[in-house]
Design a protein that fits this description.
This protein is an all-alpha fold. The protein has 2 domains: about 130 residues, Hypothetical protein af1432, CATH 1.10.3210.50; about 80 residues, no CATH class. It contains 9 helices and no strands. Helix 1 runs antiparallel to helix 2 and helix 4 packs antiparallel against helix 5. The longest helix is centred in the C-terminal third of the chain and has 25 residues.
């Protein structure tokens, strides 16, 4: 099967040589729609879910992964399922098993894909992409497809949407927005277990520097600047001392 072609059933490519007006819709749209419908049902059965890992997050990651894959030449038969199913098992931030969530997701996602007859030769690559997406798991992405999915998921944690997700998580965990004594960690080390803004310095700017594809790096640069602008505006509003360089690092 050629790289980037569809997998099985409704996701087969249209017959070769069909005139443009007679060609079927993009088979990868059908694949995405099928996986989205499955995740809608799965999330509904799971009950209330935090807004950081909801259906909208999955939709954004899947869309971003597809754009990066198109730019980088990655196999959509692997990228699309891995992107939609990367949070198949979603554990709270403070769950002691959190570091294993991507591995648990990969196991259950593989079982689901096998149950619907997804091509078995693609499953190992999908499993690896799901396992490697997690920041906390520390699993190196060995394939282009895994790098694409990892970049797409990490991009969703930075920029404007990353700021929104950061504060949504702060609300769930009842964590203050910033330290009243030193909001921007000018004279102390970031402590994101206690203050939300500290998470920008502890993780978000570092995440922007971990992109593994050219398309991911370009988008991460844009989103990092969005976060820098936000912190400068916040500093103006709350009167905190903020000195920040182009890389997002604190400066005295």
């Amino acid at each position: 099967m050629p790289r980037g072609s569809a997998g099985c059933g409704d996701w087969q490519s249209e017959p070769a040589g069909a005139p443009p007006e007679a060609q079927a819709p993009d088979p990868f749209d059908a694949l995405s729609d099928s996986l989205r419908a499955h995740m809608v049902r799965r999330l509904a059965l799971a009950g209330p879910c935090d807004p950081v890992h909801d259906l909208l997050h999955l939709q954004r990651v899947a869309a971003t992964a597809r754009r990066i894959a198109a730019s980088e030449g990655a196999d959509l038969r692997v990228v699309i399922p891995a992107a939609w199913l990367h949070d198949y098992v979603n554990l709270p931030k403070d769950d002691p098993r959190r570091d294993h969530a991507s591995r648990l997701s990969a196991v259950e996602a593989r079982a689901y894909l096998a149950s619907i007859g997804y091509p078995p030769d693609l499953l190992p690559a999908i499993v690896h992409a799901i396992e490697a997406h997690s920041f906390s798991a520390g699993i190196a992405a060995r394939t282009l497809e895994a790098k694409v999915v990892q970049d797409a998921d990490r991009l969703d944690g930075i920029g404007a949407i990353g700021i929104a997700r950061c504060f949504a998580c702060a609300g769930v965990m009842a964590r203050p927005f910033y330290s009243p004594a030193d909001p921007f960690c000018v004279t102390r080390e970031p402590d994101d277990a206690h203050f939300t803004i500290d998470h920008f310095y502890r993780k978000l700017f570092k995440t922007a520097a971990t992109m593994q594809t050219a398309a991911g790096r370009e988008e991460a640069g844009r989103r990092a600047e969005v976060m820098r602008r936000y912190l400068r505006e916040l500093g103006e509003e709350i009167g905190g001392v903020l000195l920040i360089n182009a890389a997002g690092r604190r400066e005295l």
